[in-house]
Amino acid sequence: MVEYTLIKKDPNSRARLGKLKTRRGIIDTPIFMPVGTNATVKGIWQHQLEEIGAQIILGNAFHLYLKPGLEIIREFGGLHRFMGWDKPILTDSGGFQVFSIKNKKVSDDGVMFKSPIDGSKIFMTPELSMEIQMTLGSDIAMAFDECVAPEMSREYAEKSVKRTTEWAKRCLAYHDGSQALFGIVQGAFDKSLREQSAAEITSMDFDGFAVGGLSVGEPFPITKEILEYTVDLLPEDKPRYLMGIGSPDLIITAVENGIDMFDCVLPTRIGRHGTALTWNGKINLKAAKFKHSKEPIDNECSCKVCQHYSRGYIYHLFSRDEMLGKLLVSYHNIHFLLEFTGKIREAIASDTFKEFKEECYNSGLIKKEVLLPEL
After folding, report:
1. Would you give per-residue pLDDT tens digits along the chain (375 residues)?
2. DSSP 8-state secondary structure symbol assigned to residue 9
3. How many CB atoms neighbour CB 119 within 10 A?
4. If you ran DSSP here, which 8-state letter would residue 290 be given?
5. For residues 16 and 10, is the Cβ–Cβ distance under 8 A?
6. Among 230, 264, 298, which residue terminates a domain?
7. Among 204, 231, 264, which residue terminates a domain?
8. 375 within domain boundaries
């Protein structure tokens, strides 16, 4: 259901340029995917996503199962028609959301927990996750996995890897093939468990592979170390997806290690609180120093917000708790990350990825620890 084509490799890292063909369009990789958890990227209209170059967005199986529910989605003919979006959609299996719930009971059969909406009992299984995602009709579905917290013991992580493998088998057995299906490699922060998980998951007939269980609260050096180790265990001829990352630091790190796809709620979440991404790093537009500023959020940005509105105006909107301020900064931030990944693709294509990283460091966009040792 998807076809990945490797176009070019960077000579100084594992960064790669590719194309991912789906039934609803071709995606240029590496690509940032805006997150539309509840069938909406918060604060952004679907036509705005198109105008700023979003090629694929995410929906979440867990949340959409709770509201509006599968009956409504079926009535509308799938998630694309329900939300008025005709480009590709990837759906998260709900594994991370289940991981985030405090009071749950995990067994080899599935996960029992109470609905955060009405308190009713829900038993999430690999089969139910597949049923939800097939009903949603996403272009790419994810296998149901178990993501473990950083503080979990190695003993538990070992059981979790086995469980994730068995759940992956059940997902493949139940899935009807109507959409692409990606497997997820787990293993916490233990390299031997990562190796075991990768060997087991990549031996199955998945259309692509994701690295799960990172960026869940661990220090950046650990994220980088485990990512570097894990990517080498994934096949080169299929797409690679690092789940839940969206800061420029982590995007650069992911790309230099051969990751093709990544997603995060970061641009809209921080945007709603007045923080903007710029080529010189983050800025807090709620700060009083911007009260009189006639400058745009970022002088180097070509988005509509930067072309029409000043930092001073946006400061005013936040000072009066006006909705527009949150919308403007969210729009800018998503545009920024899509433009950022576009420039990464250009750099890989022209063999200047190393120089691009240096420029990002010199401008203040990424931190020193993100750079490769030779830089």
Report:
1. 899 999 999 999 999 999 999 999 999 999 999 999 999 999 999 999 999 999 999 999 999 999 999 999 999 999 999 999 999 999 998 877 777 788 889 999 999 998 888 889 999 999 999 999 999 999 999 999 998 877 888 999 999 999 999 999 999 999 999 999 999 999 999 999 999 999 999 999 999 999 998 988 888 999 999 999 999 999 999 999 999 999 999 999 999 999 999 999 999 999 999 999 999 999 999 999 999 999 999 999 999 999 999 999 999 999 999 999 999 999 999 999 999 999 999 999 999 999 999 999 999 999 866 654 433
2. E
3. 7
4. G
5. yes
6. 264
7. 264
8. no
Tokens of 69: 């529910």
Q: Is 332 annotated as a binding residue?
A: yes
Query: 18: annotated binding-site residue?
Result: no
| 92 marked as binding residue | yes
φ, ψ dihedrals at 189, nearest 5°? -115, 25
Residues 9 and 149 in one domain: yes
Question: Has residue 93 been placed in a domain?
Answer: yes
Per the structure, the complete domain to which residue 362 belongs is given by 271-370
* 232 belongs to an annotated ligand binding site: no
Q: How many alpha carbons fall within 13 Å on the CB side of residue 53?
A: 19
- Encoded tokens for 15: 């960064």
Q: Is residue 213 part of a domain?
A: yes
Q: Is 360 annotated as a binding residue?
A: no
Note whether 105 and 222 are same-domain residues: yes
Report the 10 Å Cβ neighbour count for 269: 15
Structurally, how many domains does the chain consist of? Answer: 2
The catalytic residues are 92, 263
Q: State yes or no: 59 annotated in a binding site.
A: no
Cβ proximity of 210 and 239 under 8 Å: no
Are 181 and 211 part of one and the same domain?
yes
Q: How far is CA 361 from the centre of its chain?
A: 23
